[in-house]
Amino acid sequence: MRTTIVFALLSGLLTSSAMAADAARCQKVRIADLGWTDIALTNTTAQLILNGLGYDASQTLLGLGVTYSALKEGDMDVFLGNWRPVQDEEYKSFFDEGSVEVLGVNLEGAKYTLAVPKNVSDQGIKSFDDLAAHADKFGRKIYGIEAGSNKPLLDMVAANRHGLGDWEIVESSEAAMLTQVSNAVADKNWVVFLGWEPHPMNLDYNMTYLSGGDVEFGPNFGGATVRTIARHGFSADCPNAAKLFANLAFDLDYENYGMQMILRQGKSADVAAREMIKRNPDKLAKWLDGVSTYDGQPGLQAVKSALGQ
Protein backbone atom coordinates (compact mmCIF):
# COMPACT_ATOMS: atom_id res chain seq x y z
CA MET A 1 0.00 0.00 0.00
CA ARG A 2 2.76 2.41 1.01
CA THR A 3 4.71 1.50 -2.12
CA THR A 4 1.65 2.22 -4.27
CA ILE A 5 1.17 5.64 -2.70
CA VAL A 6 4.84 6.56 -3.11
CA PHE A 7 4.76 5.42 -6.75
CA ALA A 8 1.64 7.50 -7.41
CA LEU A 9 3.21 10.58 -5.83
CA LEU A 10 6.39 10.14 -7.83
CA SER A 11 4.39 9.62 -11.03
CA GLY A 12 2.47 12.83 -10.36
CA LEU A 13 5.67 14.76 -9.77
CA LEU A 14 7.26 13.37 -12.94
CA THR A 15 4.16 14.18 -14.98
CA SER A 16 4.08 17.74 -13.64
CA SER A 17 7.79 18.15 -14.34
CA ALA A 18 7.39 16.81 -17.88
CA MET A 19 4.56 19.25 -18.62
CA ALA A 20 6.41 22.24 -17.18
CA ALA A 21 9.21 21.61 -19.66
CA ASP A 22 10.71 25.10 -19.88
CA ALA A 23 13.85 25.95 -17.96
CA ALA A 24 13.61 28.49 -15.13
CA ARG A 25 15.34 31.16 -17.25
CA CYS A 26 12.46 30.88 -19.75
CA GLN A 27 9.83 32.42 -17.50
CA LYS A 28 11.10 35.85 -18.53
CA VAL A 29 10.69 36.20 -22.30
CA ARG A 30 12.47 39.23 -23.80
CA ILE A 31 10.98 40.36 -27.12
CA ALA A 32 12.74 42.86 -29.41
CA ASP A 33 10.67 45.80 -30.69
CA LEU A 34 11.60 48.08 -33.62
CA GLY A 35 8.95 50.75 -33.15
CA TRP A 36 7.05 49.55 -36.24
CA THR A 37 3.27 49.43 -35.86
CA ASP A 38 2.95 45.92 -37.29
CA ILE A 39 5.52 44.55 -34.85
CA ALA A 40 3.92 46.49 -31.98
CA LEU A 41 0.70 44.61 -32.73
CA THR A 42 2.25 41.15 -33.14
CA ASN A 43 4.64 41.59 -30.20
CA THR A 44 1.81 42.67 -27.93
CA THR A 45 -0.35 39.76 -29.07
CA ALA A 46 2.49 37.40 -28.10
CA GLN A 47 3.09 39.24 -24.82
CA LEU A 48 -0.57 39.04 -23.75
CA ILE A 49 -0.69 35.32 -24.47
CA LEU A 50 2.61 34.61 -22.72
CA ASN A 51 1.57 36.55 -19.64
CA GLY A 52 -1.72 34.65 -19.61
CA LEU A 53 0.33 31.44 -19.58
CA GLY A 54 2.26 32.57 -16.52
CA TYR A 55 5.35 33.90 -18.25
CA ASP A 56 6.77 37.38 -17.72
CA ALA A 57 7.08 38.80 -21.24
CA SER A 58 8.54 42.22 -21.98
CA GLN A 59 9.42 44.30 -25.03
CA THR A 60 12.57 46.37 -25.58
CA LEU A 61 12.90 49.02 -28.30
CA LEU A 62 16.05 48.43 -30.37
CA GLY A 63 17.39 49.15 -33.84
CA LEU A 64 17.39 46.32 -36.37
CA GLY A 65 21.15 45.73 -36.28
CA VAL A 66 21.20 45.92 -32.49
CA THR A 67 18.38 43.36 -32.35
CA TYR A 68 20.44 40.77 -34.23
CA SER A 69 23.46 41.45 -32.04
CA ALA A 70 21.33 41.19 -28.89
CA LEU A 71 19.98 37.81 -30.01
CA LYS A 72 23.49 36.63 -30.76
CA GLU A 73 24.72 37.69 -27.33
CA GLY A 74 21.69 36.20 -25.56
CA ASP A 75 20.45 39.60 -24.40
CA MET A 76 17.12 39.17 -26.26
CA ASP A 77 15.10 36.00 -26.72
CA VAL A 78 12.72 36.51 -29.64
CA PHE A 79 12.22 38.79 -32.65
CA LEU A 80 9.01 38.68 -34.75
CA GLY A 81 10.29 40.93 -37.57
CA ASN A 82 12.65 38.87 -39.76
CA TRP A 83 11.36 40.23 -43.09
CA ARG A 84 12.55 38.21 -46.05
CA PRO A 85 14.10 38.67 -48.55
CA VAL A 86 14.96 42.24 -47.51
CA GLN A 87 17.01 41.11 -44.46
CA ASP A 88 18.54 38.05 -46.11
CA GLU A 89 21.80 39.50 -47.33
CA GLU A 90 22.78 41.92 -44.55
CA TYR A 91 22.05 39.47 -41.72
CA LYS A 92 22.99 36.23 -43.50
CA SER A 93 26.00 35.59 -41.24
CA PHE A 94 23.81 35.36 -38.11
CA PHE A 95 21.92 32.42 -39.64
CA ASP A 96 25.01 30.82 -41.19
CA GLU A 97 26.88 30.76 -37.89
CA GLY A 98 23.81 29.57 -35.97
CA SER A 99 23.69 32.51 -33.56
CA VAL A 100 19.95 32.85 -34.26
CA GLU A 101 17.35 30.18 -34.97
CA VAL A 102 14.07 30.25 -36.88
CA LEU A 103 10.94 29.42 -34.85
CA GLY A 104 8.38 29.83 -37.63
CA VAL A 105 6.74 32.02 -40.27
CA ASN A 106 4.34 34.55 -38.76
CA LEU A 107 3.14 36.29 -41.94
CA GLU A 108 2.95 35.48 -45.64
CA GLY A 109 1.77 37.59 -48.56
CA ALA A 110 3.25 40.93 -47.52
CA LYS A 111 3.79 43.42 -50.38
CA TYR A 112 5.95 46.49 -51.04
CA THR A 113 5.81 48.20 -54.44
CA LEU A 114 4.08 50.97 -56.42
CA ALA A 115 0.31 51.22 -56.31
CA VAL A 116 -2.52 53.26 -57.79
CA PRO A 117 -6.17 53.78 -56.80
CA LYS A 118 -8.55 51.32 -58.44
CA ASN A 119 -10.19 54.03 -60.56
CA VAL A 120 -6.75 54.50 -62.16
CA SER A 121 -6.08 50.79 -62.66
CA ASP A 122 -9.55 50.52 -64.20
CA GLN A 123 -8.22 52.84 -66.93
CA GLY A 124 -5.56 50.28 -67.86
CA ILE A 125 -2.73 51.19 -65.48
CA LYS A 126 -1.69 47.76 -64.24
CA SER A 127 2.11 47.80 -64.59
CA PHE A 128 5.19 49.99 -64.13
CA ASP A 129 5.42 49.96 -67.93
CA ASP A 130 1.99 51.62 -68.25
CA LEU A 131 2.99 54.76 -66.37
CA ALA A 132 5.12 56.65 -68.90
CA ALA A 133 2.38 56.80 -71.55
CA HIS A 134 0.20 58.71 -69.09
CA ALA A 135 2.88 60.99 -67.63
CA ASP A 136 0.76 64.14 -67.89
CA LYS A 137 -2.09 62.67 -65.86
CA PHE A 138 0.35 61.71 -63.11
CA GLY A 139 2.21 65.02 -63.31
CA ARG A 140 5.37 62.94 -63.82
CA LYS A 141 5.46 62.35 -60.06
CA ILE A 142 5.72 59.25 -57.91
CA TYR A 143 4.96 59.77 -54.23
CA GLY A 144 7.35 58.03 -51.86
CA ILE A 145 8.02 58.26 -48.15
CA GLU A 146 10.91 59.62 -46.10
CA ALA A 147 14.36 60.18 -47.64
CA GLY A 148 16.46 57.04 -47.41
CA SER A 149 13.53 54.71 -48.02
CA ASN A 150 13.02 55.38 -51.73
CA LYS A 151 16.33 54.15 -53.17
CA PRO A 152 14.76 51.57 -55.54
CA LEU A 153 12.63 54.33 -57.06
CA LEU A 154 15.49 56.83 -57.29
CA ASP A 155 17.67 54.20 -58.96
CA MET A 156 14.81 53.41 -61.36
CA VAL A 157 14.56 57.04 -62.47
CA ALA A 158 18.33 57.44 -62.72
CA ALA A 159 18.51 54.38 -65.01
CA ASN A 160 15.47 55.51 -67.02
CA ARG A 161 13.80 52.16 -66.49
CA HIS A 162 10.19 51.87 -67.68
CA GLY A 163 10.67 55.18 -69.52
CA LEU A 164 10.49 57.10 -66.25
CA GLY A 165 13.81 58.95 -66.47
CA ASP A 166 12.21 62.39 -66.40
CA TRP A 167 9.86 61.65 -63.48
CA GLU A 168 10.22 63.04 -59.95
CA ILE A 169 10.24 60.94 -56.81
CA VAL A 170 8.51 63.07 -54.17
CA GLU A 171 10.13 62.31 -50.80
CA SER A 172 8.33 63.48 -47.67
CA SER A 173 6.84 61.15 -45.07
CA GLU A 174 4.34 58.32 -44.89
CA ALA A 175 1.69 60.70 -43.53
CA ALA A 176 2.30 63.32 -46.22
CA MET A 177 2.24 60.69 -48.97
CA LEU A 178 -1.06 59.28 -47.74
CA THR A 179 -2.54 62.78 -47.52
CA GLN A 180 -1.66 63.22 -51.18
CA VAL A 181 -3.29 59.90 -52.01
CA SER A 182 -6.42 60.75 -49.99
CA ASN A 183 -6.80 64.07 -51.79
CA ALA A 184 -6.30 62.45 -55.20
CA VAL A 185 -8.85 59.74 -54.45
CA ALA A 186 -11.39 62.31 -53.23
CA ASP A 187 -10.91 64.42 -56.37
CA LYS A 188 -10.66 61.36 -58.66
CA ASN A 189 -7.23 62.52 -59.83
CA TRP A 190 -4.49 60.15 -60.90
CA VAL A 191 -1.72 59.32 -58.43
CA VAL A 192 0.96 56.62 -58.16
CA PHE A 193 2.57 55.97 -54.79
CA LEU A 194 4.63 53.58 -52.73
CA GLY A 195 2.28 51.08 -51.14
CA TRP A 196 2.71 48.15 -48.81
CA GLU A 197 0.77 45.55 -46.90
CA PRO A 198 0.10 45.02 -44.04
CA HIS A 199 -0.97 48.62 -43.48
CA PRO A 200 -4.34 50.38 -42.95
CA MET A 201 -4.00 52.02 -46.39
CA ASN A 202 -5.25 48.70 -47.78
CA LEU A 203 -8.52 49.27 -45.91
CA ASP A 204 -8.66 53.03 -46.43
CA TYR A 205 -8.34 52.92 -50.23
CA ASN A 206 -9.48 50.63 -53.00
CA MET A 207 -5.99 50.26 -54.45
CA THR A 208 -4.14 48.16 -57.02
CA TYR A 209 -0.50 47.08 -56.77
CA LEU A 210 1.39 47.41 -60.05
CA SER A 211 3.13 44.47 -61.68
CA GLY A 212 6.45 44.75 -63.51
CA GLY A 213 8.54 46.09 -60.64
CA ASP A 214 10.64 42.97 -60.07
CA VAL A 215 13.93 44.81 -60.68
CA GLU A 216 13.01 47.51 -58.20
CA PHE A 217 11.23 45.55 -55.45
CA GLY A 218 11.44 41.85 -56.28
CA PRO A 219 8.84 39.38 -57.56
CA ASN A 220 5.26 38.96 -56.36
CA PHE A 221 4.70 42.71 -55.90
CA GLY A 222 7.76 43.01 -53.68
CA GLY A 223 6.45 39.96 -51.84
CA ALA A 224 7.82 39.21 -48.39
CA THR A 225 7.61 36.55 -45.75
CA VAL A 226 8.02 37.47 -42.09
CA ARG A 227 9.61 34.97 -39.72
CA THR A 228 9.94 34.72 -35.96
CA ILE A 229 13.53 34.11 -34.88
CA ALA A 230 15.17 33.57 -31.51
CA ARG A 231 18.52 33.41 -29.78
CA HIS A 232 20.49 30.21 -30.25
CA GLY A 233 19.23 27.51 -27.90
CA PHE A 234 15.82 29.05 -27.22
CA SER A 235 13.92 26.02 -28.56
CA ALA A 236 16.00 23.61 -26.48
CA ASP A 237 15.73 25.70 -23.30
CA CYS A 238 12.10 26.73 -23.74
CA PRO A 239 10.21 24.15 -25.84
CA ASN A 240 6.79 25.25 -24.59
CA ALA A 241 7.32 28.95 -25.33
CA ALA A 242 8.99 28.03 -28.62
CA LYS A 243 5.91 25.97 -29.55
CA LEU A 244 3.73 29.04 -29.03
CA PHE A 245 5.95 31.14 -31.28
CA ALA A 246 6.02 28.39 -33.90
CA ASN A 247 2.19 28.39 -33.86
CA LEU A 248 1.86 32.19 -33.82
CA ALA A 249 0.97 32.93 -37.45
CA PHE A 250 -1.00 36.03 -38.43
CA ASP A 251 -2.61 37.08 -41.70
CA LEU A 252 -2.95 40.34 -43.61
CA ASP A 253 -6.45 41.09 -42.31
CA TYR A 254 -5.39 40.61 -38.70
CA GLU A 255 -2.53 43.07 -39.11
CA ASN A 256 -4.35 45.55 -41.36
CA TYR A 257 -7.28 45.89 -38.94
CA GLY A 258 -5.11 45.83 -35.84
CA MET A 259 -2.83 48.51 -37.24
CA GLN A 260 -5.86 50.56 -38.24
CA MET A 261 -6.98 50.61 -34.60
CA ILE A 262 -3.56 51.92 -33.57
CA LEU A 263 -2.88 54.39 -36.38
CA ARG A 264 -6.37 55.61 -37.23
CA GLN A 265 -8.36 55.14 -34.02
CA GLY A 266 -5.59 56.06 -31.57
CA LYS A 267 -5.84 52.85 -29.57
CA SER A 268 -2.83 51.48 -27.74
CA ALA A 269 -1.16 48.33 -29.02
CA ASP A 270 -2.44 46.56 -25.89
CA VAL A 271 -6.06 47.51 -26.55
CA ALA A 272 -5.79 46.70 -30.26
CA ALA A 273 -4.20 43.30 -29.62
CA ARG A 274 -6.84 42.39 -27.01
CA GLU A 275 -9.62 43.32 -29.42
CA MET A 276 -8.08 41.39 -32.32
CA ILE A 277 -7.58 38.29 -30.15
CA LYS A 278 -11.22 38.52 -29.05
CA ARG A 279 -12.34 38.78 -32.68
CA ASN A 280 -10.30 35.71 -33.65
CA PRO A 281 -11.05 32.85 -31.22
CA ASP A 282 -10.16 30.25 -33.85
CA LYS A 283 -6.70 31.76 -34.21
CA LEU A 284 -6.20 31.75 -30.44
CA ALA A 285 -7.08 28.06 -30.32
CA LYS A 286 -4.55 27.28 -33.08
CA TRP A 287 -1.85 29.39 -31.44
CA LEU A 288 -2.26 27.48 -28.18
CA ASP A 289 -2.52 24.01 -29.69
CA GLY A 290 -0.05 21.87 -27.75
CA VAL A 291 0.97 24.78 -25.51
CA SER A 292 0.66 24.67 -21.72
CA THR A 293 0.98 27.29 -19.02
CA TYR A 294 4.44 27.77 -17.57
CA ASP A 295 3.52 25.41 -14.71
CA GLY A 296 2.12 22.74 -17.01
CA GLN A 297 -1.64 23.42 -17.00
CA PRO A 298 -3.88 23.60 -20.13
CA GLY A 299 -2.95 26.78 -21.96
CA LEU A 300 -6.07 27.86 -23.86
CA GLN A 301 -8.38 28.12 -20.88
CA ALA A 302 -5.74 29.96 -18.85
CA VAL A 303 -5.27 32.60 -21.54
CA LYS A 304 -8.99 33.00 -22.09
CA SER A 305 -9.45 33.53 -18.36
CA ALA A 306 -6.58 36.03 -18.19
CA LEU A 307 -8.06 38.01 -21.11
CA GLY A 308 -11.60 37.85 -19.72
CA GLN A 309 -12.97 35.79 -22.59
TrEMBL record:
One of its GO terms (biological process) is choline transport. GO terms for cellular component: ATP-binding cassette (ABC) transporter complex; periplasmic space. Residues 1-20 form the signal peptide. Gene3D superfamilies: Glycine betaine-binding periplasmic protein, domain 2, Periplasmic binding protein-like II. GO terms for molecular function: choline binding; transmembrane transporter activity. Residues 28-278 form the ABC-type glycine betaine transport system substrate-binding domain. Keywords: Signal. NCBIfam families: ABC_choline_bnd. This is Glycine/betaine ABC transporter substrate-binding protein.
